Amino acid sequence: MLSAAADLGYLGPNPLGRQLRSGRSGIVGVVVGDALRRSFRDPVSIQVLDGLVGTLGEMSLGVLLIPGPSDPAEAPVDPLVLSAAMDVAVLLWGSGTQDPVLDALRRRGVPTVVVEGVPEPDVATVGIDDRRGMADVVRHLQDLGHERFACVTLAFDRQRGEGFVEPARWDEVVWQVTRRRLDGVRDAGVTPESVYETPASLVEHGKAAGFAILSREDRPTAVVCQSDLLASGVVLAARELGLAVPGDVSVAGFDGLDLPWLAPDVLTSVVQPLAEKGVVVGRAVASLLAGQMPEPTVLPVALRPGTTTGPAPR
């Protein structure tokens, strides 16, 4: 029989027929939340996706990557969110208040996992203890004698602004990752002297922030960044301005990335379990497919002191 099947070029059951029998597409829609050309330059995205896709592959599930808008003027919801076949959706980088993508998935009745969003009864959530992690890195800098801080943040909302943000807007952050990490700084009892918003977690945006913050006469002694790529950009800006890191300014990030090109510096960072987070998201998908709503998961983070933080200059 197998020989005859091989002679006929039979490759196995028709996947469309299998979908009709099961009532499922075998596809998980992964909403990246940003343009793919930016997301794939960020090792954080790649490592989380690696853990997620590997876990889904073990369950014979395919992945449909759905990008976010590349420009704030574009529609916030990709047409694939509205029409593509998917058994479960994953919002990879959280959600904001009244998130239009999550609202669209709810209207379709698609079970959803939200990564680093706000726990809600009708969605599965997987997050990290990033608020505490940011408080820990600020306290580390306080122990080193620092009192004057600046913060470089991820985008506040889908407008993806760039530049210094007035204090009146600090409590108007829509995107939850940015909000929690900024709140973590204040949990340590610090009110930043300046907050600089960036449109995406990329080195060039961190470098622009670094030039803006460190060119001021009243520059801070410590810059706390919401990602390692942003922090590495600040370090590069400091070098070009002739400032010693950490002699003149300390810089800390978040993610725990391995950045050998930043040598000889090793970034002080808050390490998050990137691949493990992807695996846990995959397991949440499996629970939803089984008709079960998993409990919200919050993964721990840990401070990793490096060479980019030191005693405050006198």
From TrEMBL:
Transmembrane segments: none annotated. It comes from the Bacteria. SUPFAM superfamilies: Periplasmic binding protein-like I (SSF53822). Residues 138-309 form the Transcriptional regulator LacI/GalR-like sensor domain. Keywords: DNA-binding, Transcription, Transcription regulation. GO terms for molecular function: DNA-binding transcription factor activity; transcription cis-regulatory region binding. The keyword Transcription applies. This is Transcriptional regulator. It comes from Cellulomonas uda.
